[in-house]
Design goal:
The chain has helices at residues 2-25, 86-97, 131-137, 139-145, 161-173; strands at 44-53, 56-61, 64-70, 72-74, 101-105, 117-122, 150-152. It has 194 residues and is an alpha+beta fold. The protein has a single domain (44-180), classed as OB fold (Dihydrolipoamide Acetyltransferase, E2P) (Beta Barrel).
């Protein structure tokens, strides 16, 4: 009789703990974060050797050159096809990153189907991922805030998705970057016009 009572009590305790964790961390999508993300483990330093386009660069990490696709953002195309604002987004990324030392943060999924490393690019080493640090130091966020990209979220890589939704809303509301260019984006859906 005692073992069953212990198991039932353990199950109830786990449910209470899980419920508390979900309630604390949940907020409507796009609402400002009330808590900072936890500290950022596993950051790796890298050296940008070449910008491919607005959301992709070649970065040497630990002596290995990787093609890195920036998580959570999509800039207009500027390589095989050229979309409105594509060249501007590519140039923005080149000016910000070419030859620069950056900090690389990965999420749950390490690579995409093309073998590219998926990462958040920090311009300076963050101490914690607060809203202020994300805005000031994370290049993925800068692309959204300055209107050179749109959100492009694929689970399970969603660590900063709520922040990114908020940043895109800010850029759209102020007609920043591509949001002010006819044909560059559909302001109702947030997707580029076909």
């Amino acid at each position: 009789m005692r073992p069953r009572y212990g198991i039932a009590l353990s199950v109830v305790a786990v449910c209470v703990l899980l419920t508390g964790c979900v309630a604390q961390g949940s907020a409507p999508l796009g609402a400002p974060s009330t808590q900072a993300h936890s500290t950022i483990p596993g950051l790796r330093q890298g050296q940008v050797v070449r910008v491919v386009d607005g959301d992709t660069a070649r970065i040497v990490i630990g002596g290995v050159e990787e093609k890195v696709r920036f998580i959570g953002v999509d800039t207009p195309e500027s390589t095989r096809e050229v979309e409105p604002y594509g060249k501007a987004a590519s140039e923005y990324t080149r000016k910000a990153l070419d030859g620069r030392t950056v900090w690389i943060e990965t999420d749950d999924e390490l690579r995409d189907r093309y073998g590219r490393l998926l990462a958040y690019i920090w311009l300076d080493r963050p101490t914690a991922a607060t809203d202020r640090e994300i805005r000031d130091k994370m290049f993925n966020a800068r692309l959204l805030l300055d209107g050179y990209a749109q959100i492009y979220t694929f689970p399970p890589n969603v660590r900063y998705a709520e922040d990114f939704v908020r940043y895109q809303r800010e850029a759209r509301a102020s007609d920043t970057g591509l949001w002010a260019v006819p044909g560059a984006a559909d302001p109702l859906t947030g997707k580029r016009a076909e």
